[in-house]
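Sat 14:20. Reprocessing the chain from the morning session after the first attempt stalled halfway. Input below, unchanged.
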Amino acid sequence: MFKKSLIALALTTASVASFAAVDIETGTEAAALNVSIEGAANMTSITAGDVVATLGAEYAVGDIITLTFSGGELDATTVPTSVTAVNATNNLNVVVGLLSASDNVVTYRVTEVKENGGAGLVSTVGAVLTVSALEFDTASVLSSAKTTVTYSAATSTDVTIDAGTMSSADMITAQKQFSVDRSADTDFDAVIDVETQRLKFESGDVVDVATITLVDDAAATDFDATAATFDVAVSGSFSHLDTDADTAGIQVAAGTFTVSSGAIAAADITADTVTIKGAAAGTLTFTIDADGAVDDATAAAVIPTVDYTATVTVDYTDAGTDGAGTGAAAGETTVVSGADIGEWTLNGSVVEVPYMPMGPNTQPFLRHTNDGSQTGDITLRYMVEGEHTSYQNGGTLVSQATPGVRNLLTEIEAALLADGYDRTAAGFKVALEITTNVPADDVKVTTGAKFINQENTDRLSIGIIGSN
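Finished this time. Tokens:
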């Protein structure tokens, strides 16, 4: 019976030594850091969590243990010169001494294997090697998605030992603390009604809402930034909401713009941008209500088709040079630029002619075809190259235009002339937006031009353009 017990013990020890393998993954990743890129930006260095490797083989004096790092650059001066792998499972500890260290490789040699007085097997399996307080270059950590460590070991005769599937671990990950999550947000999506001469939305009201979820992931990051507020610049078209054309800038009626967080100052409203400042993390609701205070100035303003985008920046205080606030500094970063947050469309036809040459020696032509059965007004907006950065209102070209083909050049020239653009006096280039209050599929526009000089005549075909 006694012989059988000894044999069983020997087999158990052999089994542990033969089939176990190092595990650096479990302990190291439990101690890993998830660093805020914004908060840690000015830290002198980043001290990682412990590298924890549970040995899975029998080690002897002279064996070599190598730790290889990728991602962040290690400060070799912070590597401990001697470490004891303490065994709480079996009765042999392993002492290692430093052979060499660089910015990505640390090499230790086993200098002693000694009993610890435990009651377990005479084995080094289960000894836990903990390497603490390693410091990494901040810039290299933040520029890498993660910093990893890989464990390898070999005998003094270079025979690989203790290899397994858990020999690598993520020590440090770096993530942006601030982001925008629009997965559950709503977009501007109003449809402008051509039957009301584009003065109302199809729903009968002139109110639309978009939401933007601003994320501060401080709870999930180490060395996080604090005191964060967001600025959201919404780009679109807002000049139709101006209540005072004689005053510089854009003046809007009270209640035209409302937000659930932050504020919009009068100086932060322009013809193409409204900026919300000081918003807190969470879901920001931005409401545009052209009926906020109805008056004659805005009631007759045509609502334009608009593509809305948002650029989000965040102001914050970083974690300082030590990650604990010492020497903390203010920071600002762009979270997202030009994110699509919706559009205002038209339930009629909008045709954009990107280029039309006008001049004394230029004879343009523009034929408008409505091959449907509905009658509707044809209106114009235009931009003169070199003078305008947004469309100008050209008024109604034809009231209650019946189906068929018509040449709109005379009407367009008259609209431009009324605003001081005389093609018989000087040449210019103009982009046109032609809106017809009929179904979009019924309308197309054919455009081109003829250039005349003393010797010959050249023609330019711009093309046949359908509704957007």
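The mean pLDDT is 90.
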